[in-house]
Amino acid sequence: MADQEIAVLERPKEHRENRKKNLGRKVEPNQARAVAKFVRVPPRKARLVMDEVRGRYAYDALAFLKFIPNRAAEYIRRVLESAVANAANNHNLNPENLKLVEARVDEGPRWKRVQPRAQGRAYRILKRTSHIMVIVQEVEPKPRKPRKASGRRAQAAREARQPQAAPTPAPVVETTVPEGTTPVVAEDTTPITAVDETPVALETAAEPPAANTEDATRETGAPTKTDNEEASGR
């Protein structure tokens, strides 16, 4: 009986080797992962944030987590940055084409604390922890939508994209001339207009004669000085 019990209790070495191989989740060659354990965040609150970034591209998820006012978002962002660094340094993957294919938040051990209450009572406080695991995978590049120009820029872009038609040359008519004859050249029949080369005298406008100031004042009725007034100096 003793020999049989010893034979049952002993385990082969292969069991230990297989146990080491099975630790953690196996990832594909085009994947990388990162794990953070014993994070001081409740799993329920961390899962609310993780559900928003699951399935996004890595860079889009990092930008999204940067502006979430939640303490769990900071821990998830650090784990995602570590997964992207592992993919780039350890697996030679392109960081721009990484996608968050798996993101899991497991519950860790609970820390028991006590809150003293009235009449010698004590209330139990549970401080929950989380294990955050992230797996990124290299996929096709994210499709980018071209920006649409507006106004004059859009019109200029449309005109630049349209192919400009080349001017068609005029057709050339080939005429065959029989041997022994001289080709007849068509004469120019446009009429020639004669140009009159006689010099033209420039007419100068005659200056109008200066008007007499005395006549003008008399016609308008303005008072004028007589000879006696001029002599007396009045």
Structure description:
The protein is an alpha+beta fold. The longest helix is centred in the middle third of the chain and has 19 residues, at 71-89. It is built from eight helices and five strands. The strands form two sheets. The protein has a three-stranded antiparallel sheet with strand order 1-5-2. It has a two-stranded antiparallel ribbon with strand order 3-4. Helix 4 runs antiparallel to helix 5. It has a domain at 28-138: Ribosomal Protein L22, Chain A (Alpha-Beta Complex). The protein is elongated, with a radius of gyration of 52 Å. The termini are far apart.
Share in helix: 25-40%
What is the makeup of the main sheet?
Answer: 3 strands, antiparallel
**What is the end-to-end distance?**
167 Å
- Globular, elongated, flat, extended or rod-shaped: what is the shape? elongated
CATH class of the domain at 28-138: Alpha Beta
Give the amount of beta strand, in percent. Answer: 15-25%
Could you name the CATH homologous superfamily of the domain at 28-138?
Ribosomal protein L22/L17
> Number of DSSP helices?
8
Number of strands: 5
CATH architecture of the domain at 28-138: Alpha-Beta Complex
What is the SS-derived class? alpha+beta
CATH topology category name of the domain at 28-138:
Ribosomal Protein L22, Chain A
Which spans have pLDDT < 50 for at least 5 consecutive residues?
none
What strand order characterises the main sheet?
1-5-2
Give the topology string: H per helix, E per strand: HHEHHHEEEEHHH
Write down the overall mean pLDDT.
78
Radius of gyration over all CA atoms, rounded: 52 Å
